[in-house]
Design brief:
The chain contains one helix and six strands. By secondary structure, the chain is mainly beta. It has one domain: Nucleic acid-binding proteins (OB fold (Dihydrolipoamide Acetyltransferase, E2P)). The chain has a five-stranded mixed β-barrel with strand order 1-3-4-6-5. The chain is globular and about 50 Å long. 16% of the residues are buried.
Length: 104
């Protein structure tokens, strides 16, 4: 089976780095990816995609990128259990980065 995704976009929020209980560094960022087509009003909307980076990539992203940076991410899709604000369970989708390219 194949689970590979490649996306290019701008970092929508400053990367946030944390450390797990096991001592691994993890960085979460939100990537804004503009759609290739306008809506019915002629406006190009964007999708906001959560991306997770681990260990060395987490360190690198937190020190080399900032809000507005253009990056390319190659990774895999991963789902996880989450709860909405109203308390309903749902499956959320996230990209786990395997490589990152700094384009700006």
């Amino acid at each position: 089976m194949i689970n590979t995704v490649v996306i290019v976009g701008r970092i929508a929020e400053a990367p946030e780095i944390k450390e797990t209980a096991m001592g691994n560094k993890v960085c979460s960022l939100l990537l804004e990816v503009e759609r290739n087509f306008p809506n019915s009003e002629g406006v190009y909307l964007s999708d906001y995609i959560p991306v997770t980076l681990w260990k060395g990539m987490a360190d690198e992203a937190s020190s080399h990128s900032k809000e507005g940076s253009l990056i390319g991410v190659k990774g895999r899709l991963q789902t996880y259990e989450a709860k909405s604000k109203s308390g309903n369970d749902f499956r959320a989708l996230n990209v786990v980065a395997e490589s990152i390219t700094y384009l700006s």
